Records
---
Amino acid sequence: MDKKVCFLVVIYGKDFWDSSTFLSLEKYSKYKEIEVYIHNNGPNSLINSFNSNSERFYNFKKISFFENLNNQSLSSIYNFFIDKTMLYDRRVILDDDTVLNDSFISKIFDLAYYDLELPKIFEITNNKQYFPLLSNEILLYERDISDIGGGVILSAGSGLVISKKIVDIFVQEKLSLFDQNFFLYGVDYSFFLRLYKIQKKKKYKLIIHSESTILHNMSQNQKIESWRQFELHINDILLFRHYPSFLTFVKFVKLIFVKIQKIQIFSLLNLILILVIGRHPKVNHEN
């Protein structure tokens, strides 16, 4: 029996036709029964574009479109999508600048059972691999990583293929998959760190694979703008607050030291306030 699959594509600051992710899915919709949920996160409305190009969506088995022009948190978008696809066998999370290929699509619709597929993610400009990470080392080869000997798995959110079993486990544990204390950076890591905590209980047997590849714009070679740098600092603060470890502690101490050294008092006070409150300033307090 075919697997029931739904794709989430989060678009920000571009039209459908400027999204490499959507164009990839459009190509494969001619051969696969693809259901897709598109979330336009602003800042410009795409309703007119959606309505005036309806023929471009005919090949999709089902397409749902939603937009929030206020730049909604990724954690709340992802969790909403998870809630809407509770009965699906698999759900796939994608951003708007990922290039999909045959290996990835084949793995998604593979009849063989698995709980989590973490594609190997390569930078689109230089073909350098960045994810997934296993105990802070890049996972280079195709393999079953179900038995990782206590190591922590981390990857980017775009490309995650999540089974119904994982969704059900998080429900049993009374946890959302993505920590809604995070807004942008850290949302994907929060899933893996929550999964790691669950796995340490040794109550569940999960099958985790990394057998496909995707291309992604990692923005690794671009100059980091000041707002993005501050978002990364917020991520470090929140990871230390909610998922303390030696690594998050070291990052926290280094960050505070740099702020003091550069006499960035206002920025330092903001970060300390975020540490105390425990959530990103742009999100409401949810689980």
---
Amino acid sequence: VCGCCGRCRPRYKRLVDNIFPEDPKDGLVKSDMEKLTFFAVSAPEKLDRIGEYLAERLSRDVVRHRYGYVVIAMEALDQLLMACHSQSIKPFVESFLHMVAKLLESKEPDLQVLGTNSFVKFANIEEDTPSYHRRYDFFVSQFSAMCHSTHEDTETRTRIRVAGIRGLQGVVRKTVNDELQAIIWEPQHMDKLIPSMLFNMQDNDDLD
């Protein structure tokens, strides 16, 4: 890409690109992440575009199995979510949850756990204005399925199940924090939540 084309790219894209090192093993470029965060806080109206572009990059890296870059993208999303609290965060949250969902749908246990960890962090954030239209049906279903993991490796199976339990706890916490508890108590959710918890309690008893 020529220098001119690079300069013609929107600033938010250049800032996002700069947080990714040439070698993913080097991790998030912290100095450039600070610049991206400052930009996002100073120009919250750009948050949705930042989220969409990060989601675009992450989706591409998941497909290409470039998981080191996936981890970096999620770390950036987590940090932006923690730093930005404004009316403009709602579209960003939608991009964030879309990415979490993509990781949870992955067949890679490490990505499922990564997505769960990000969701749990999100669940602990109190948004300035709760989004009453947001539904968590997918997350209840996905975390419940993880609670029933039958992965052939015992240690991996346990990791996935524990992540599923943490995810369900996060969904409950988020809906209560956002005063949406009426939604979580709906039968279609409770019919998945309770059996998932009991299944793992029984499994632990069997191991004892």
---
Amino acid sequence: AYIQHLTTHMPSKLDSFGECARTKQDKAFVRRYGPGFKEVKYARMKQYKFVLVFQNADCDYWVDDQLSQAFDAGAVPVFMGTSLVEHLLPGRLRSGVILVRDFPSPQALAAHLLFLDGNEAAYNVYHAWRTAGVGDYSTSLVARAWDP
């Protein structure tokens, strides 16, 4: 439902290829678990400034690979899921994500995305970690995996 509300505030700017709230058809897009799905999805993500990363479950510390796929594709993830996601993001990566919960409504999020779409300097703030590096990640849970 959130995507549908978001779409009403940015109708010509939001493309959704998923099973829920699909706004765009793509013959190259294959079934989710079909052969080549991840490659097609990644190629599609690379074409966008923002990628909606809406988790199927809102459980503590649950984040699936969609978040890293969005980062890898060069997009800014727009994340909806666990409120503890910042504990999982190392260092400067925390400032590379737009958290849906930081906005009071889909309309407010849409306004922010449209602002960033038209303001390169503000948009690039979300990519600062790419040039400055991840930075100190010792306070994140990722440190346990990266520095056992």
